[in-house]
Write a structure and sequence with these properties.
529 residues, mainly alpha, three-stranded parallel sheet, three-stranded antiparallel sheet
Length: 529
């Protein structure tokens, strides 16, 4: 090929010279100049050009090598990455990831080039080359350092997950979603974690431009989900949303990068589980995958229902449905069977009376607590019937527990109900009295007790407060002091129930707003009005 090209070039040069001789054939001076240039100048010119060419090649080779070394060192010291999904650049300092502007990268780059005098003339070329290489470095191909990984795990465990392996499993699931793996799987979580996941979704969209990375986390089971594709996740449901929000604001990007790393390292969440989790954890997470509807209902019946053909006994459907919810709650299971389907399956197993909507010849050891509480509620609690209609009366859940226990002591056959707790109360109220408004699982609104008039107790304590202030010259009484005096009054009369400080202050604002100054002080002259 080269020989052919050389022959062609030689012929072209010969033709060019022939052309020049032909052009100046009548001009002897020009013909002599052609001969002089060829014999005297052409050889030297070509020699000089060869020397300059070889210098340029040597220089280019040197600069190219220097540039490669500079780029290698620069990108090693400054770990920059890029995502094409949102056109963002990122920097990792060995501990934390952060979003950076391209201008900041260029400024850092040019500052470093300026220190390297050799590459100054290739400054623009080097900049373009490095930016191109950074754009080829995907953020999720980065490998977080151990410090970063351990920091993220310490934020998730034990705060959000009961074990470290469950925290790692969660991260692997997120990584799978980022890397679009196992998209057929459904992860069922506690409804209380919905805000936690929503905030994570928001941070992912904000920081990496990904949407729906928590799309396969469900708080409810739907019948179009197959058990085979369902996984159960146990997350703590008493997480402070504000704390979680701060965690994601400060470390959300770190969390997402660690999640992607776990997904790549362990291939997918199921393989992570199979290779790393203990048997108890696997059994829970794979519970729906490895258990049928019939087996679950059979387990419920064995634990919660007792057949009794010798006595005339029954369980109302509403009560039985509540027991089912209790079983699910204690087993940390989602409601994986719709109520009507569940009822239909029980009809196949037990005798059912349509007229009274009850299952016949069965009972449960768990019934007394719920039954007695319903009696207590219906006989001692007023709903929406409050003497002071302008004051929003309420009972706290722990107060309801105390009232129920006191009521139980006065009623024969209810001593076994003293184990009631706040979770029992809220679940019973939500199931049997769905119109009741419960705020933060703590405050039950628009209700009052027949046996305990909270407002009257506070008003009665005013006389005790007045006696305390009688020999005092103070003109102001703080809310704290007033509450302590109210508390002392309750102890003096051996009152078993005491309102919370929050309710006490709320009542003061209702009763004597014109005598409250500086937000939490009472003018003492009011007590002598």
């Amino acid at each position: 090929m080269n020989e052919t090209n050389n022959a062609n070039n030689l012929n072209m040069c010969v033709e060019t010279i022939h052309g020049l001789f032909e052009k100046y054939k009548d001009n002897e001076y020009m013909l002599n100049r052609i001969v002089t240039h060829i014999e005297n100048y052409l050889s030297n010119t070509l020699e000089n050009e060869l020397v300059n060419y070889e210098k340029r090649i040597t220089r280019r080779s040197f600069l190219t090598n220097e540039q490669q070394i500079f780029i290698q060192v620069f990108l090693s010291k400054h770990q920059y990455y890029y995502l094409s999904t949102n056109n963002n650049f990122y920097e990792y300092d060995g501990k934390n990831y952060k979003i950076v502007k391209e201008d900041d990268i260029i400024h850092c780059l040019l500052s470093n080039i300026s220190k390297d005098r050799v590459l100054l003339q290739w400054k623009h070329k080097t900049k373009i080359n490095i930016i191109k290489q950074i754009k080829d470095r995907n953020l999720f191909a980065s490998i977080p350092e151990t410090d970063t990984i351990q920091n993220i795990l310490s934020l998730l465990y034990p705060y959000l997950f009961p074990t470290k392996n469950q925290a790692k499993h969660f991260l692997t699931i997120l990584g799978d979603n980022i890397n679009k793996k196992n998209q057929n799987l459904i992860f069922l979580v506690n409804p209380q974690t919905k805000r936690v996941l929503s905030e994570l979704e928001y941070i992912a969209n904000l920081s990496i431009g990904h949407t729906n990375i928590t799309n396969n986390f469900m708080t409810k089971y739907h019948e179009n989900h197959t058990f085979e594709n369902c996984r159960l996740l146990k997350m703590n449901d008493n997480v402070s949303f504000d704390v979680w929000k701060d965690i994601l604001r400060n470390y959300g990007l770190d969390l997402l990068c660690v999640a992607s790393h776990y997904s790549i390292r362990h291939v997918n969440s199921d393989l992570f589980l199979n290779n790393n989790a203990d048997e108890e954890t696997k059994k829970y997470i794979y519970f729906l995958k490895e258990t049928s509807h019939i087996e679950i209902i059979e387990d419920f019946c064995n634990k919660y229902i007792v057949s009794d053909d010798t006595n005339v006994c029954k369980i109302e459907w509403k009560m039985l449905h509540f027991l089912w919810k209790q079983y699910l709650g204690k087993s940390s299971l989602p409601g994986m069977i719709y109520a009507n389907n569940f009822k239909g399956l029980l009809k196949e197993k037990y005798k059912y009376d349509e007229n009274i909507d009850s299952f016949i010849n069965i009972t449960s050891k768990f019934l007394p607590l719920q039954s007695e509480f319903i009696k207590f509620w219906e006989s001692t609690i007023n709903v929406g019937s409050i003497a002071d209609s302008t004051f929003d009366s309420e009972l706290e859940v722990d107060e309801i527990c105390s009232l129920f226990k006191l009521w139980s002591k006065l009623n024969a056959g209810t001593n076994n109900c003293n184990n009631i707790n706040e979770e029992n109360v809220t679940s019973i109220l939500r199931h049997f009295f769905s119109d009741i408004v419960i705020i933060d699982d703590k405050y039950v609104l628009n209700v009052s007790s027949v046996s305990w008039n909270k407002n009257k107790d506070i008003e009665n304590s005013f006389e005790h407060i007045k006696k305390h202030l009688k020999d005092s010259n103070t003109t102001l009484l703080s809310f704290d002091e007033a509450y302590n005096l109210y508390y002392t009054y309750c102890n003096l009369i051996s009152h078993q129930l005491v309102v919370s400080k929050r309710y006490f202050e709320k009542f003061l604002y209702y009763k004597i707003p014109e005598h409250i100054i500086y937000e939490n002080f009472i003018e003492t002259n009011w007590f002598y009005v």
